[in-house]
Amino acid sequence: MAKVSNVPTIRRLPGYLHLLKELKEEGQETVSTTFLASEMQIDPIVIRKDLTMTGASGKPRTGFVVADLVEAIENFLGWRTTTDAFLVGAGNIGSALLGYSGFASYGLRIVDAFDASPAKVGTIVHGHLILPMDKLPDRVATVKARLGILTVPADAAQEAADLMVAAGILGIWNFTPVKIKVPSDVVTQKEDLASGLAELSVRVKLREL
Amino acid sequence: MAKVSNVPTIRRLPGYLHLLKELKEEGQETVSTTFLASEMQIDPIVIRKDLTMTGASGKPRTGFVVADLVEAIENFLGWRTTTDAFLVGAGNIGSALLGYSGFASYGLRIVDAFDASPAKVGTIVHGHLILPMDKLPDRVATVKARLGILTVPADAAQEAADLMVAAGILGIWNFTPVKIKVPSDVVTQKEDLASGLAELSVRVKLREL
DNA sequence: TAGATTGTTAATCGATTAACAATC
DNA sequence: TAGATTGTTAATCGATTAACAATC
Q: Which site in A41, A176, B55, B203 is 20 to 30 Å from B197, CA atoms measured?
Protein backbone atom coordinates (compact mmCIF):
# COMPACT_ATOMS: atom_id res chain seq x y z
CA MET A 1 0.00 0.00 0.00
CA ALA A 2 1.11 3.54 0.84
CA LYS A 3 1.58 4.23 -2.88
CA VAL A 4 -0.84 6.95 -3.98
CA SER A 5 0.16 7.06 -7.59
CA ASN A 6 1.16 4.64 -10.31
CA VAL A 7 0.92 5.73 -13.90
CA PRO A 8 -0.04 2.41 -15.53
CA THR A 9 -2.80 1.97 -12.96
CA ILE A 10 -4.13 5.49 -13.51
CA ARG A 11 -4.20 4.90 -17.26
CA ARG A 12 -6.19 1.70 -16.85
CA LEU A 13 -8.87 3.22 -14.61
CA PRO A 14 -10.91 4.89 -17.40
CA GLY A 15 -11.25 1.51 -19.10
CA TYR A 16 -12.79 0.00 -15.98
CA LEU A 17 -14.99 3.06 -15.60
CA HIS A 18 -16.34 2.70 -19.12
CA LEU A 19 -17.25 -0.95 -18.58
CA LEU A 20 -18.71 -0.33 -15.12
CA LYS A 21 -20.99 2.39 -16.44
CA GLU A 22 -22.27 -0.01 -19.08
CA LEU A 23 -22.95 -2.64 -16.44
CA LYS A 24 -24.70 -0.06 -14.29
CA GLU A 25 -26.92 0.88 -17.20
CA GLU A 26 -27.79 -2.77 -17.69
CA GLY A 27 -28.95 -2.83 -14.08
CA GLN A 28 -26.11 -4.94 -12.70
CA GLU A 29 -25.65 -4.16 -9.01
CA THR A 30 -22.46 -5.98 -8.08
CA VAL A 31 -19.43 -7.19 -10.00
CA SER A 32 -16.37 -9.31 -9.25
CA THR A 33 -12.83 -8.55 -10.41
CA THR A 34 -12.92 -12.00 -12.00
CA PHE A 35 -15.75 -10.86 -14.25
CA LEU A 36 -14.18 -7.49 -15.03
CA ALA A 37 -10.94 -9.26 -15.86
CA SER A 38 -12.51 -11.65 -18.34
CA GLU A 39 -14.37 -8.79 -20.05
CA MET A 40 -11.28 -6.62 -20.28
CA GLN A 41 -8.90 -9.49 -21.02
CA ILE A 42 -6.60 -8.54 -18.14
CA ASP A 43 -5.36 -10.58 -15.21
CA PRO A 44 -7.84 -10.25 -12.28
CA ILE A 45 -4.95 -9.58 -9.91
CA VAL A 46 -4.05 -6.43 -11.85
CA ILE A 47 -7.58 -5.12 -11.40
CA ARG A 48 -7.63 -5.88 -7.68
CA LYS A 49 -4.35 -4.00 -7.21
CA ASP A 50 -5.59 -1.11 -9.32
CA LEU A 51 -8.86 -0.83 -7.43
CA THR A 52 -7.07 -0.78 -4.09
CA MET A 53 -5.54 2.54 -5.12
CA THR A 54 -8.96 4.13 -5.57
CA GLY A 55 -9.90 3.23 -2.00
CA ALA A 56 -12.84 1.07 -3.10
CA SER A 57 -13.43 -2.11 -1.17
CA GLY A 58 -15.43 -5.18 -2.00
CA LYS A 59 -16.92 -8.13 -0.20
CA PRO A 60 -15.62 -11.68 -0.57
CA ARG A 61 -18.05 -13.86 -2.56
CA THR A 62 -20.16 -10.97 -3.88
CA GLY A 63 -17.54 -8.58 -5.17
CA PHE A 64 -17.92 -4.82 -5.54
CA VAL A 65 -21.05 -2.66 -5.68
CA VAL A 66 -20.96 -1.26 -9.22
CA ALA A 67 -22.22 2.19 -8.25
CA ASP A 68 -19.68 2.48 -5.43
CA LEU A 69 -16.87 1.47 -7.71
CA VAL A 70 -17.86 4.04 -10.32
CA GLU A 71 -17.92 6.69 -7.62
CA ALA A 72 -14.56 5.64 -6.16
CA ILE A 73 -12.80 5.74 -9.53
CA GLU A 74 -14.35 9.07 -10.50
CA ASN A 75 -13.42 10.54 -7.15
CA PHE A 76 -9.89 9.30 -7.42
CA LEU A 77 -9.52 10.87 -10.87
CA GLY A 78 -11.23 14.07 -9.76
CA TRP A 79 -13.85 13.59 -12.48
CA ARG A 80 -16.85 14.24 -10.23
CA THR A 81 -16.13 17.95 -10.19
CA THR A 82 -16.02 19.95 -13.39
CA THR A 83 -12.64 21.24 -14.55
CA ASP A 84 -12.65 24.16 -16.94
CA ALA A 85 -10.24 24.14 -19.84
CA PHE A 86 -9.51 26.27 -22.84
CA LEU A 87 -8.36 25.08 -26.18
CA VAL A 88 -5.78 26.75 -28.37
CA GLY A 89 -5.72 25.87 -32.07
CA ALA A 90 -8.99 25.20 -33.87
CA GLY A 91 -7.56 23.08 -36.69
CA ASN A 92 -8.49 19.49 -37.46
CA ILE A 93 -7.77 17.95 -34.08
CA GLY A 94 -8.84 21.02 -32.14
CA SER A 95 -12.20 21.09 -33.90
CA ALA A 96 -12.70 17.38 -33.29
CA LEU A 97 -12.08 17.88 -29.57
CA LEU A 98 -14.49 20.83 -29.50
CA GLY A 99 -17.13 18.52 -30.91
CA TYR A 100 -16.41 15.59 -28.64
CA SER A 101 -19.32 15.22 -26.24
CA GLY A 102 -17.65 12.55 -24.11
CA PHE A 103 -15.55 15.03 -22.13
CA ALA A 104 -18.53 15.84 -19.91
CA SER A 105 -18.28 12.41 -18.30
CA TYR A 106 -14.60 13.07 -17.58
CA GLY A 107 -15.51 16.27 -15.77
CA LEU A 108 -13.89 18.33 -18.49
CA ARG A 109 -15.55 21.42 -19.91
CA ILE A 110 -13.99 23.45 -22.70
CA VAL A 111 -15.04 27.02 -21.93
CA ASP A 112 -13.12 28.92 -24.60
CA ALA A 113 -11.37 28.24 -27.86
CA PHE A 114 -8.67 30.36 -29.49
CA ASP A 115 -6.94 30.49 -32.83
CA ALA A 116 -4.21 32.64 -34.32
CA SER A 117 -5.72 32.68 -37.81
CA PRO A 118 -7.92 35.74 -38.54
CA ALA A 119 -9.92 33.54 -40.90
CA LYS A 120 -11.00 31.31 -38.04
CA VAL A 121 -11.57 33.97 -35.40
CA GLY A 122 -15.28 34.78 -35.14
CA THR A 123 -16.43 31.49 -36.61
CA ILE A 124 -18.36 28.99 -34.53
CA VAL A 125 -17.03 25.44 -34.25
CA HIS A 126 -19.34 22.92 -32.62
CA GLY A 127 -21.00 25.69 -30.67
CA HIS A 128 -17.77 27.40 -29.62
CA LEU A 129 -16.99 30.92 -30.77
CA ILE A 130 -13.33 31.07 -31.81
CA LEU A 131 -11.54 33.95 -30.08
CA PRO A 132 -8.32 35.71 -31.09
CA MET A 133 -5.17 34.78 -29.19
CA ASP A 134 -4.78 38.20 -27.58
CA LYS A 135 -8.03 37.69 -25.69
CA LEU A 136 -6.54 34.68 -23.92
CA PRO A 137 -5.04 36.35 -20.81
CA ASP A 138 -8.25 38.29 -20.08
CA ARG A 139 -10.47 35.28 -20.52
CA VAL A 140 -8.39 32.99 -18.32
CA ALA A 141 -8.54 35.55 -15.55
CA THR A 142 -12.32 35.83 -15.85
CA VAL A 143 -13.05 32.17 -16.37
CA LYS A 144 -10.35 30.67 -14.12
CA ALA A 145 -9.60 27.79 -16.45
CA ARG A 146 -7.22 25.25 -14.97
CA LEU A 147 -6.25 23.21 -18.02
CA GLY A 148 -5.09 24.16 -21.51
CA ILE A 149 -5.54 21.96 -24.54
CA LEU A 150 -2.82 22.54 -27.11
CA THR A 151 -3.82 21.69 -30.67
CA VAL A 152 -1.77 24.14 -32.73
CA PRO A 153 0.72 23.25 -35.50
CA ALA A 154 4.15 22.10 -34.28
CA ASP A 155 5.91 25.37 -35.02
CA ALA A 156 3.43 27.37 -32.93
CA ALA A 157 3.43 24.98 -29.99
CA GLN A 158 6.03 26.55 -27.71
CA GLU A 159 4.71 30.08 -28.17
CA ALA A 160 1.13 29.03 -27.45
CA ALA A 161 2.29 27.07 -24.41
CA ASP A 162 4.14 30.14 -23.09
CA LEU A 163 0.95 32.13 -23.40
CA MET A 164 -0.97 29.48 -21.46
CA VAL A 165 1.65 29.41 -18.73
CA ALA A 166 1.70 33.20 -18.45
CA ALA A 167 -2.07 33.10 -18.05
CA GLY A 168 -1.65 30.84 -15.04
CA ILE A 169 -2.73 27.48 -16.35
CA LEU A 170 -1.94 24.45 -14.13
CA GLY A 171 -1.69 21.74 -16.75
CA ILE A 172 -1.31 21.46 -20.51
CA TRP A 173 -2.70 18.61 -22.59
CA ASN A 174 -0.30 18.65 -25.50
CA PHE A 175 -1.49 17.20 -28.83
CA THR A 176 1.52 18.49 -30.80
CA PRO A 177 4.63 16.43 -31.60
CA VAL A 178 6.75 19.01 -29.79
CA LYS A 179 8.20 18.56 -26.30
CA ILE A 180 7.24 21.93 -24.87
CA LYS A 181 9.25 23.65 -22.15
CA VAL A 182 7.34 24.86 -19.11
CA PRO A 183 8.15 25.83 -15.51
CA SER A 184 8.41 22.87 -13.16
CA ASP A 185 5.12 23.62 -11.43
CA VAL A 186 3.13 23.27 -14.66
CA VAL A 187 2.13 19.73 -15.58
CA THR A 188 2.32 18.70 -19.22
CA GLN A 189 0.72 15.62 -20.67
CA LYS A 190 1.72 14.66 -24.19
CA GLU A 191 -0.92 12.88 -26.21
CA ASP A 192 1.16 11.32 -28.87
CA LEU A 193 -0.44 9.87 -31.99
CA ALA A 194 2.99 9.16 -33.43
CA SER A 195 3.94 7.02 -30.41
CA GLY A 196 0.79 4.97 -30.76
CA LEU A 197 1.35 4.45 -34.45
CA ALA A 198 5.00 3.54 -33.83
CA GLU A 199 3.93 0.86 -31.38
CA LEU A 200 1.32 -0.48 -33.78
CA SER A 201 3.78 -0.46 -36.70
CA VAL A 202 6.43 -2.44 -34.86
CA ARG A 203 3.95 -4.91 -33.40
CA VAL A 204 2.43 -5.61 -36.83
CA LYS A 205 5.91 -5.98 -38.30
CA LEU A 206 6.91 -8.48 -35.60
CA ARG A 207 3.70 -10.44 -36.12
CA GLU A 208 4.48 -10.84 -39.79
CA LEU A 209 7.80 -12.64 -39.25
CA MET B 1 21.84 -6.99 -26.57
CA ALA B 2 19.42 -9.49 -28.14
CA LYS B 3 16.32 -7.44 -27.21
CA VAL B 4 14.51 -6.44 -30.39
CA SER B 5 11.54 -4.78 -28.78
CA ASN B 6 10.76 -2.57 -25.82
CA VAL B 7 7.55 -0.61 -25.77
CA PRO B 8 8.72 2.53 -23.92
CA THR B 9 11.66 2.80 -26.29
CA ILE B 10 9.47 2.41 -29.36
CA ARG B 11 7.13 5.10 -28.08
CA ARG B 12 10.03 7.52 -27.57
CA LEU B 13 11.48 7.07 -31.06
CA PRO B 14 9.01 9.37 -32.90
CA GLY B 15 9.99 12.20 -30.55
CA TYR B 16 13.64 11.84 -31.50
CA LEU B 17 12.64 11.60 -35.14
CA HIS B 18 10.72 14.84 -34.99
CA LEU B 19 13.65 16.70 -33.45
CA LEU B 20 16.21 15.12 -35.79
CA LYS B 21 14.23 16.17 -38.85
CA GLU B 22 14.18 19.73 -37.56
CA LEU B 23 17.94 19.64 -37.06
CA LYS B 24 18.43 18.21 -40.52
CA GLU B 25 16.36 21.02 -41.99
CA GLU B 26 18.54 23.53 -40.15
CA GLY B 27 21.53 21.96 -41.87
CA GLN B 28 23.02 20.26 -38.82
CA GLU B 29 25.06 17.27 -39.93
CA THR B 30 25.93 15.49 -36.69
CA VAL B 31 24.41 15.37 -33.23
CA SER B 32 25.37 13.93 -29.84
CA THR B 33 23.02 12.14 -27.49
CA THR B 34 24.04 14.76 -24.93
CA PHE B 35 22.52 17.45 -27.13
CA LEU B 36 19.38 15.45 -27.95
CA ALA B 37 18.94 14.77 -24.26
CA SER B 38 19.10 18.42 -23.24
CA GLU B 39 16.63 19.37 -25.98
CA MET B 40 14.20 16.61 -25.07
CA GLN B 41 14.74 16.89 -21.32
CA ILE B 42 15.56 13.20 -20.99
CA ASP B 43 18.61 11.48 -19.55
CA PRO B 44 21.24 10.98 -22.30
CA ILE B 45 21.69 7.39 -21.25
CA VAL B 46 18.07 6.63 -22.12
CA ILE B 47 18.62 7.97 -25.61
CA ARG B 48 21.80 5.96 -26.12
CA LYS B 49 20.01 2.77 -25.08
CA ASP B 50 17.04 3.60 -27.27
CA LEU B 51 19.19 4.30 -30.31
CA THR B 52 21.06 1.03 -29.89
CA MET B 53 17.81 -0.75 -30.66
CA THR B 54 17.49 0.94 -34.03
CA GLY B 55 20.90 -0.36 -35.05
CA ALA B 56 22.31 3.14 -35.51
CA SER B 57 25.87 3.70 -34.40
CA GLY B 58 27.78 6.87 -33.67
CA LYS B 59 31.37 7.97 -33.33
CA PRO B 60 32.95 8.99 -30.03
CA ARG B 61 33.56 12.75 -29.90
CA THR B 62 31.42 13.62 -32.94
CA GLY B 63 28.22 11.74 -32.22
CA PHE B 64 25.73 10.51 -34.81
CA VAL B 65 25.20 11.59 -38.40
CA VAL B 66 21.74 13.17 -38.34
CA ALA B 67 20.65 11.78 -41.71
CA ASP B 68 21.77 8.26 -40.77
CA LEU B 69 19.91 8.43 -37.51
CA VAL B 70 16.70 9.55 -39.20
CA GLU B 71 17.02 6.66 -41.61
CA ALA B 72 17.76 4.11 -38.89
CA ILE B 73 14.74 5.13 -36.83
CA GLU B 74 12.41 5.22 -39.83
CA ASN B 75 13.65 1.83 -40.95
CA PHE B 76 13.18 0.36 -37.53
CA LEU B 77 9.61 1.64 -37.38
CA GLY B 78 8.91 0.56 -40.96
CA TRP B 79 8.02 4.13 -41.85
CA ARG B 80 10.14 4.27 -45.02
CA THR B 81 7.64 2.14 -46.89
CA THR B 82 4.03 3.21 -47.27
CA THR B 83 1.41 1.27 -45.35
CA ASP B 84 -2.15 1.50 -46.63
CA ALA B 85 -4.94 1.87 -44.13
CA PHE B 86 -8.66 2.38 -44.20
CA LEU B 87 -10.67 4.34 -41.75
CA VAL B 88 -14.08 3.39 -40.39
CA GLY B 89 -16.22 6.11 -38.84
CA ALA B 90 -16.14 9.60 -40.32
CA GLY B 91 -17.29 11.47 -37.23
CA ASN B 92 -15.34 14.14 -35.39
CA ILE B 93 -12.13 12.23 -34.74
CA GLY B 94 -12.33 10.27 -37.97
CA SER B 95 -12.66 13.45 -40.00
CA ALA B 96 -9.76 15.04 -38.14
CA LEU B 97 -7.55 12.07 -38.97
CA LEU B 98 -8.63 12.18 -42.63
CA GLY B 99 -7.43 15.78 -42.70
CA TYR B 100 -4.17 15.18 -40.88
CA SER B 101 -1.35 15.64 -43.36
CA GLY B 102 1.37 14.43 -40.97
CA PHE B 103 0.64 10.74 -41.55
CA ALA B 104 2.61 10.82 -44.79
CA SER B 105 5.85 11.17 -42.84
CA TYR B 106 4.89 8.13 -40.77
CA GLY B 107 4.47 6.07 -43.93
CA LEU B 108 0.72 5.89 -43.39
CA ARG B 109 -1.74 6.45 -46.21
CA ILE B 110 -5.48 6.35 -45.68
CA VAL B 111 -6.84 4.90 -48.89
CA ASP B 112 -10.52 4.56 -48.06
CA ALA B 113 -12.99 5.86 -45.53
CA PHE B 114 -16.28 4.27 -44.52
CA ASP B 115 -19.30 5.27 -42.49
CA ALA B 116 -22.54 3.57 -41.51
CA SER B 117 -24.62 6.72 -41.73
CA PRO B 118 -26.41 7.18 -45.10
CA ALA B 119 -26.16 10.93 -44.52
CA LYS B 120 -22.37 10.77 -44.61
CA VAL B 121 -21.96 8.24 -47.41
CA GLY B 122 -21.18 10.01 -50.67
CA THR B 123 -19.87 13.17 -49.04
CA ILE B 124 -16.23 14.15 -49.34
CA VAL B 125 -14.21 14.74 -46.19
CA HIS B 126 -10.77 16.28 -46.67
CA GLY B 127 -10.60 14.82 -50.14
CA HIS B 128 -11.84 11.37 -49.16
CA LEU B 129 -15.10 10.02 -50.55
CA ILE B 130 -17.03 8.34 -47.75
CA LEU B 131 -18.10 4.81 -48.73
CA PRO B 132 -20.89 2.67 -47.25
CA MET B 133 -19.85 -0.09 -44.87
CA ASP B 134 -20.92 -2.89 -47.18
CA LYS B 135 -18.29 -1.85 -49.69
CA LEU B 136 -15.57 -2.57 -47.14
CA PRO B 137 -14.80 -6.24 -47.92
CA ASP B 138 -14.53 -5.57 -51.68
CA ARG B 139 -12.32 -2.56 -51.24
CA VAL B 140 -9.91 -4.24 -48.84
CA ALA B 141 -9.45 -7.08 -51.29
CA THR B 142 -8.73 -4.65 -54.12
CA VAL B 143 -6.61 -2.22 -52.17
CA LYS B 144 -4.83 -4.65 -49.83
CA ALA B 145 -4.95 -2.34 -46.84
CA ARG B 146 -3.00 -3.64 -43.87
CA LEU B 147 -4.23 -1.38 -41.11
CA GLY B 148 -7.68 -0.29 -39.99
CA ILE B 149 -8.39 2.94 -38.12
CA LEU B 150 -11.41 2.61 -35.88
CA THR B 151 -13.17 5.90 -35.14
CA VAL B 152 -16.80 4.86 -34.72
CA PRO B 153 -18.98 5.46 -31.61
CA ALA B 154 -18.39 3.06 -28.71
CA ASP B 155 -21.49 0.97 -29.35
CA ALA B 156 -20.51 0.29 -32.95
CA ALA B 157 -16.86 -0.53 -32.17
CA GLN B 158 -16.96 -4.31 -31.89
CA GLU B 159 -19.10 -4.78 -34.99
CA ALA B 160 -16.87 -2.54 -37.09
CA ALA B 161 -13.78 -4.33 -35.76
CA ASP B 162 -15.28 -7.70 -36.72
CA LEU B 163 -15.81 -6.41 -40.25
CA MET B 164 -12.19 -5.28 -40.42
CA VAL B 165 -10.93 -8.62 -39.17
CA ALA B 166 -13.10 -10.54 -41.64
CA ALA B 167 -11.65 -8.41 -44.40
CA GLY B 168 -8.17 -9.57 -43.43
CA ILE B 169 -6.71 -6.54 -41.72
CA LEU B 170 -3.45 -7.10 -39.77
CA GLY B 171 -3.74 -4.35 -37.18
CA ILE B 172 -6.41 -2.06 -35.77
CA TRP B 173 -5.73 1.41 -34.43
CA ASN B 174 -8.58 1.78 -31.98
CA PHE B 175 -9.73 5.29 -31.04
CA THR B 176 -12.85 4.10 -29.19
CA PRO B 177 -13.06 3.59 -25.41
CA VAL B 178 -13.98 -0.05 -26.00
CA LYS B 179 -11.61 -2.98 -25.54
CA ILE B 180 -12.37 -4.81 -28.77
CA LYS B 181 -12.07 -8.58 -29.10
CA VAL B 182 -10.06 -9.88 -32.03
CA PRO B 183 -8.29 -13.12 -32.99
CA SER B 184 -4.82 -13.46 -31.49
CA ASP B 185 -3.07 -12.86 -34.81
CA VAL B 186 -4.60 -9.39 -35.20
CA VAL B 187 -2.77 -6.58 -33.44
CA THR B 188 -4.82 -3.90 -31.71
CA GLN B 189 -3.49 -0.60 -30.52
CA LYS B 190 -5.74 1.46 -28.29
CA GLU B 191 -5.31 5.20 -28.54
CA ASP B 192 -6.89 6.32 -25.36
CA LEU B 193 -7.78 9.96 -24.79
CA ALA B 194 -9.38 9.07 -21.47
CA SER B 195 -6.14 7.51 -20.20
CA GLY B 196 -4.18 10.62 -21.09
CA LEU B 197 -6.71 12.86 -19.40
CA ALA B 198 -6.77 10.60 -16.33
CA GLU B 199 -3.00 10.89 -16.01
CA LEU B 200 -3.14 14.66 -16.43
CA SER B 201 -5.99 14.99 -13.92
CA VAL B 202 -4.20 13.06 -11.21
CA ARG B 203 -0.88 14.79 -11.78
CA VAL B 204 -2.47 18.24 -11.56
CA LYS B 205 -4.34 17.18 -8.44
CA LEU B 206 -1.13 15.95 -6.80
CA ARG B 207 0.66 19.16 -7.73
CA GLU B 208 -1.98 21.19 -5.96
CA LEU B 209 -1.47 19.58 -2.55
C1' DT C 1 -19.77 -25.73 5.82
C1' DA C 2 -17.53 -25.21 1.33
C1' DG C 3 -15.97 -22.27 -1.90
C1' DA C 4 -15.56 -18.01 -4.37
C1' DT C 5 -13.59 -13.78 -3.88
C1' DT C 6 -10.99 -10.05 -1.60
C1' DG C 7 -6.70 -8.01 -0.42
C1' DT C 8 -1.99 -8.44 1.34
C1' DT C 9 2.74 -9.98 1.32
C1' DA C 10 6.56 -12.01 -1.31
C1' DA C 11 8.87 -13.27 -5.81
C1' DT C 12 9.71 -12.25 -10.46
C1' DC C 13 10.36 -9.63 -14.29
C1' DG C 14 11.60 -5.72 -17.08
C1' DA C 15 12.99 -0.98 -17.59
C1' DT C 16 15.73 2.70 -15.89
C1' DT C 17 19.80 4.37 -13.95
C1' DA C 18 24.62 4.09 -12.77
C1' DA C 19 29.36 2.88 -13.62
C1' DC C 20 32.94 2.43 -16.66
C1' DA C 21 35.77 0.72 -20.42
C1' DA C 22 36.50 1.64 -25.39
C1' DT C 23 37.28 4.91 -28.97
C1' DC C 24 38.07 8.67 -31.86
C1' DT D 1 47.58 13.59 -25.71
C1' DA D 2 43.34 14.92 -23.29
C1' DG D 3 38.70 14.74 -23.20
C1' DA D 4 34.14 14.18 -24.97
C1' DT D 5 31.25 10.78 -26.36
C1' DT D 6 29.77 6.03 -27.45
C1' DG D 7 28.13 1.69 -25.96
C1' DT D 8 28.28 -2.19 -22.74
C1' DT D 9 27.83 -4.43 -18.34
C1' DA D 10 26.07 -4.23 -13.61
C1' DA D 11 22.91 -2.24 -9.97
C1' DT D 12 18.66 -0.23 -8.80
C1' DC D 13 14.06 0.64 -9.03
C1' DG D 14 9.24 -0.08 -9.89
C1' DA D 15 5.49 -2.73 -11.80
C1' DT D 16 3.59 -7.16 -12.62
C1' DT D 17 2.77 -11.71 -11.25
C1' DA D 18 2.39 -15.35 -7.90
C1' DA D 19 1.11 -17.24 -3.49
C1' DC D 20 -1.86 -17.31 0.20
C1' DA D 21 -4.35 -15.92 4.29
C1' DA D 22 -8.74 -13.62 5.49
C1' DT D 23 -13.62 -13.30 4.89
C1' DC D 24 -18.29 -13.62 3.81
A: A41
